[in-house]
Amino acid sequence: MRGIGNRASPRPLYPQALSKAKGPAKRRHLRRNGPVRVQHPCFTPVFPRGRRMSPAGTRHIPVLGREAVEWLAAKSGGIYVDATFGAGGYSRAILETGGTRVIGIDRDRTAIAGGFDLVEGSEGRLILVEDRFSHLDEICAAQGFSAVDGVVMDVGVSSMQLDDAGRGFSFRLGGPLDMRMGHDGPTAADVIAKASETDLADIIYVFGEERRSRAVARAIVAARAQAPIATTRALADIVAKVVRSKPGDIHPATRTFQALRIFANQELDELHLALSAAERVLKPGGRLVVVSFHSLEDRIVKNFLTDRGKSAGGSRHLPEVAQAAPSFHILTRRPLAPREQEIAANPRARSAKLRAAERTSAPAHPADALPAWPRLSDVMRGG
Ligand SMILES: C[S@@+](CC[C@H](N)C(=O)[O-])C[C@H]1O[C@@H](n2cnc3c(N)ncnc32)[C@H](O)[C@@H]1O
């Protein structure tokens, strides 16, 4: 496999932020969180209409790709953050506008490695960073950008992650019960092994919206007393015994798998933090575009934008209280959904929703407290 930081990679890498890369140079290994900039004499950006092979051979079809980039309104000279690089579909489309620069972020090292060709062909306009998107303002600052013109996020998992049995995301494919998008922290199997029955039930209820969460948690605890639950198939079989489904329904393990994936990756906390980070780093007039895939994510985006888009109100009966001025102007009153054609070509697009907003010149609001849902560190501590 060829990729950034891969020994087999035949290409030189320049892991300095914005330093000028000159001539042939020694290949260096990608350091964790290290930016990569590669200079190449010719760049022929191509928006692939969703057809690009991942390093593993599975293709990820960018969902609402054209719309996301249109709402971003990329312009020459602009600096954009693609907070969920994945297979690079969005970054590639932004780079099609000449003179743009893109900072691509992904917590998955495999995704970053898969972006090698795009970096190489970008004439120094694309930097890739392996990190969590909740750090996006710090990542921009580390690259020398105190403010950017746009942030786009396409949250959730990629097809490459879902379709790689070894990553353990899918109950349809046999594999280790891993589910980590990055390569650190506890796996889903660790969570299953360690969490109390009450925590498991809460996790499955809150992040999976599974009505039978208590029965599923009970079944997991009974099964793990016999033998560790280490594979996707083992977990799917345990869940299928307590969650009934009719023909045509989703697989009975769908919600439990979603819950464990969201929990193990702290996905909703990440999204909360990333929205505030985007608010801090966007220039006045800069755009935020978010594509989400389920109601839990969309609710977070909607509530954040509604809150930040509120005009300062207050009651004439109450003493005047300093109210934060709106930091965003909402561009999509209702979320955009994919067209039927897109859904037919890519069923994974079915539940996607896009929301967009433009940053005002008001100061960023203080970051909101994170909701009181189960936390990975507490559960793994047994607290
Ligand atoms: C749906 S894919 C993005 C696909 C991309 N728009 C494209 O066109 O190829 C989501 C990507 O975001 C990454 N991701 C999810 N949560 C993340 C987080 N908190 N920080 C950084 N990357 C994250 C995943 O690893 C995955 O590669």
Kindly identify the CATH topology of the largest domain: Rossmann fold
Number of discrete domains: 2
Number of strands: 7
Strand and helix order: HEHEHHEHEHHHHHHHEHEHEH
Q: How would you sum up the global shape? A: globular
For the sheet with most strands, the description reads:
7 strands, mixed
Give the full name of the CATH homologous superfamily of the largest domain.
Answer: Vaccinia Virus protein VP39
User: What is the topology, as strand order, of the major beta sheet?
Assistant: 3-2-1-4-5-7-6
Which small-molecule ligands are present, each listed once?
S-adenosylmethionine
- Gap between N and C termini, in Å? 42 Å
Q: Which regions have little confidence, pLDDT < 50, spanning 5+ residues?
A: 1-56
Give me the secondary-structure category: alpha/beta
Q: Helix fraction?
A: 25-40%
Q: Which CATH class of the largest domain is shown?
A: Alpha Beta
Task: Please identify, by name, the CATH architecture of the largest domain.
Answer: 3-Layer(aba) Sandwich
Q: What integer value in Å does the Rg equal?
A: 22 Å
Strand content: 5-15%
Number of helices: 15
Let me know the average pLDDT.
84
